Amino acid sequence: MTIRSILSRTLAIILFSFVFTESVATKWPTTESEFAMLPPYCKARQGRQYGLKMSEAEIQKWKRALGPGFNNVHHFCAGLNTLYILNKKVNGAGKAELGGVLKEFEYTQTHSSKNFPLQPRISVEKGKLLLRLNRIGEAISEFQQAMKLKPSYTSSYAALSDYYVKIGLLDKAESILKEGLKYSPNSKKLKRRLKKLQ
């Protein structure tokens, strides 16, 4: 084999790897319209990097609100952005693509303290994703983790009750909603779901 043929083959392998990786890679938000679909802390964390206008006051506000976890929140944002893109795909998202999103959620989760204010939300989003991947036990654990971290966070009860309704375990769904209402008695989200079951 000549050096030229070795280089050609190496280049082909690298290009193939890049194309394959890109097809399942996380899609980082880079435009104003993408950031508009995401929570405001996403643009505060990364907007300037892509030339978008973001006041220093707004950045500092989110740094104070999220604490040290602000430094890792862009991984969660990238996961959310990728999910929005995948949900628009005609053929839906593949396991490898959803797995890439899961890694971004887990990165933020594991690289931030348990006191990070977004931990409950990350657990709920991760739980929903695990349901899509048919990893039911792990999904339920994530919803329960969110409840433990912040008992008043209604999205965790709503997500778990929705799953129980879907599989026909209506008593369990009702029980979860009633549990959530103990901590958030005025939650319209939980009351609406409970009313449908009664």
- Give the CATH architecture of the largest domain: Alpha Horseshoe
CATH topology value of the largest domain = Serine Threonine Protein Phosphatase 5, Tetratricopeptide repeat
Largest pleated sheet: none
* Beta strand count: 0
Order of helices and strands: HHHHHHHHHHH
Mean pLDDT: 89
Name the poorly predicted regions.
Answer: 10-24
CATH superfamily (homologous) name of the largest domain = Tetratricopeptide repeat domain
Describe this structure in words.
The model is unreliable at 10-24 (pLDDT under 50). This protein is mostly helical and 198 residues long. It has eleven helices and no strands. Helices cover 71% and strands 0% of the residues.
List keywords for this structure.
single chain; 198 residues; mainly alpha; Serine Threonine Protein Phosphatase 5, Tetratricopeptide repeat; 2 domains; globular
Question: What is the strand and helix layout of this fold?
Answer:
Elements: H1 3-24, H2 32-36, H3 40-46, H4 56-66, H5 73-87, H6 95-110, H7 119-132, H8 136-149, H9 154-166, H10 170-183, H11 188-197
Helix pairs in contact: 5-6, 6-7, 7-8, 7-9, 8-9, 9-10, 10-11
Condensed summary:
This protein folds into two domains: 24-97, no CATH class; 118-198, Tetratricopeptide repeat domain (Serine Threonine Protein Phosphatase 5, Tetratricopeptide repeat), CATH 1.25.40. It has helices spanning 3-24, 32-36, 40-46, 56-66, 73-87, 95-110, 119-132, 136-149, 154-166, 170-183, 188-197.
